[in-house]
Amino acid sequence: MSKKAKDPQKNQDPETKSKNSTGREIASYIIIIVVGILLAQHLNVVVSGSMEPVFYRGDVVLIEKTNFLGIEEVSPDNLQIGDIIIYRATWFPEPVIHRIVATGQDSQGRNYFVTKGDNNAGPDPSPVYPEQVQAKVISWGYNPLIIPKIGYITLWIRGL
Asked: Which of 65, 72, 87, 134 is the most buried (most CB within 10 A)?
């Protein structure tokens, strides 16, 4: 003799089934929205051609942040020559995505980075101090993780 498994919803009235289904659907939407917001915080649109041919204007790069909701995903103290970073420039109004090409120490003993766009002739005009670093571009081996051209929508909306 085989016993049939009982379906707990089989004995529920239709109104209770509907409420359970609606609750699960709302919870699913909330989870999707939260995951989307968290993922969006780890994407950055490239706005110039200064890093070509590594990535191009309109590409989206995946990043780890120095401060994401109080969590240090990447420490500026662990950055190395060759890493691509996003930093608050003193010489440009928007965050800059460039590669660390050298490190140094100023007259007060503070460490800094020298950065340069791969497509630029010379280094950036000012040193970058660790507190200016906002994020590091995530790489797989020597290749940054990129979603090509999808950022054009953002550039169009922002008028860039």
From this structure: 87
45-61 as b/e, with b when 16 or more CB fall inside 10 Å? bbbbebbeebbbbbbbb
Regarding pTM above 0.90, the answer is no
| Options 42, 50, 59, 77, the catalytic residue | 50
Structural domain total, the chain: 1
Judge whether 127 lies within some domain: yes
Q: Residue 90 sits in a domain of what CATH number?
A: 2.10.109
143 vs 21 pLDDT, higher one: 143
Residue 53: domain span = 43-158
Q: Report yes or no: 142 and 70 within 8 Å, Cβ to Cβ.
A: no
State the catalytic residue, choosing from 75, 98, 126, 139: 98
Q: Which of 75, 124, 126, 139 is catalytic?
A: 124
In a domain? residue 14? no
Does the annotation count 124 as an active-site position?
A: yes
